[in-house]
Protein: Lipid A export ATP-binding/permease protein MsbA
Organism: Labilithrix luteola
Amino acid sequence: MPNPLFQLLRYVRPHRKYAALTLGFGILGFALSFAYPWIIGTVVDVVTSPLLTFAQKKAKLVTMTELAALAAILNAAVVYGRGHFNVHLGHGIVADIRRELFEHLQKLSLLFFAKERTGSILSRFLHDVHEATSLLYTGLIVVGLDVVQLIIAIVLLASISVKLTIACLVLFPIYAGVFALLNPRVRVASERMHGKLTRISGNVAEQLAGQALVKTYTAETREAARFERDVRDHHGLVIAQSRAGHLVASSGEILVHFGTTMVIGYGGYLALAGTMTAGTLTRFIGYMLIMFGPVRRFAELNIVYQTSISAMRRVFRVLEIKPTIVDPPNPCREPPPSGEVRFEDVRFRYTEDSDEAHARLDEDRPDDGDNQPYVQRSLVLDGVTMHANPGEVVAVVGSSGAGKTTLLSLLPRLFDVTEGRVLVDGVDVRDYSLETLRSAIAIVQQDPFVFTGSVRENIAYGRPNASNEEIEWAARAAHAHDFIMELDDGYDTRLGERGANLSGGQRQRISIARALLKDPRILILDEATSSLDVASEAVVQKALEELMRSRTCFVIAHRLSTIRNANRIVVLEGGRVVESGTHAQLLARAGAYARLVRMQSVVT
Ligand SMILES: Nc1ncnc2c1ncn2[C@@H]1O[C@H](COP(=O)(O)OP(=O)(O)O)[C@@H](O)[C@H]1O
Ligand SMILES: [Mg+2]
């Protein structure tokens, strides 16, 4: 895996202006840091010089004071400029990465989302990107300048006295050794820390979503114990990282102070012996402190850097997951004119050998190559052939787990077939642009999704600029208008998360209105009424009939009345079509369908 710092560079481009400003102020500050030792050294030499007259010394002193005042003002500008523009640059990049991550996540298929937990994804999105910022703020430019500062300081030191320079640097190799030894540990611990936090977020999000279950099974104590374990593990990882990190920091400290000690002793001796003036020694010590600045900063900030780099690596790893369901190179953008659908010998299994299938967001071990054993699952669909002419209603029946939902999710390409083809008006669904294909299809599910927002926004989700008249028309057709008008604010009533303040039947009618407004050529009803009570089912059924008019429909339903009138009934068993025909034909065959009908309620 390439160094994430290099990957980061391409994000700097759009923010070059702020990068240049930060760099400009950085260089100014950097030059200024050399001004003080020079001024102080000069003042010491001027004051102690036996050659200059008092008047000359006074004049020089005034000049030096003026220079020092100028440096003070410039320094103030540097603190503002370098700090502020660096945030502009750093946060600009963070915002870009978040945007890219969001867009990328939306391109990933359901294979990915079925496997990853919402909390874990959120953790990458918020925590990891945030952690990466510390490097962006302090790192990028400051680190670069620090290296330059170190080199210039060493050159200046050596130009004053090579021996003294060597004396203050003898401990460098020890520091380098400690760093090489401990830093990999800091890095691994950082990686595992983030991984653990991702897993904790996943657990907590799941636990919160399942509060009703937790409460009714009085599992609070167990959940608390699990959380406690997670937190303890995370704490252990933070401590491990800190131990290694602070050992690196303290060895840096030894380097700095022993170096200073050497210079005080040996430099003092040189000055005593008259080999060096007091002013030169002062200047040397000044430059030396400048040189130790970056060393110290680095030793101290190393933990932050390593935490940041590993967070960044995790973010880039998500960005590198290749989406499996994408537009073809030259997609067909003609909307299907009539909505004829054909499944040809379709085979499908859930796991594919893809990036999406391999990714594990809450894995807390750093990547060490291809370490995940890959399980090939069995075929869920094993050679399904069926078709629907434009405007026909095709019912798909079969026991639970037969593959009905899976089969129909291949139509809008929520998944892609493993073998075989799905054609809409003679064109393979994989040859349409995803937008064209999906605009032509609506799905009404058993448990429709309603998001936080107004009733109006929820209905208009597929056509955000629909007029109020159109929205109301859809709601009336979906038999939803009356109950909506009874809500506190009518169409402007805000719905809670997942439509918490609506009944199942009401949510379903909102989702039917949404589908009506989208006006798709092809409609999929996946057990749209099975979670409703008899009274709401009757209303929703009426709404559905409105929706089904003049479209190609696939109906998975347990209500026999809908199925009875279907143009064709397909019976699915273990991923295969075992029978197909009209209600009357299938009853006459006295086969699987007849058996399901006899059992009535079992037709799901
Ligand atoms: N996301 C998934 N990942 C792996 N297997 C799945 C997934 N969804 C469904 N399955 C499996 O596929 C089979 C068919 O499921 P499904 O199409 O939902 O059946 P039905 O809708 O007929 O009840 C089942 O054995 C189920 O376990
Ligand atoms: Mg199903």
Observations:
- Residues 365-371 have pLDDT under 50 and may be disordered.
- Residues 505 and 535 are 9 Å apart (CA to CA).
- The chain is about 65% helix and 10% strand.
- The pocket of adenosine-5'-diphosphate (ligand 1) is lined by residues 114, 350, 380, 398, 400-406 (CB under 6 Å).
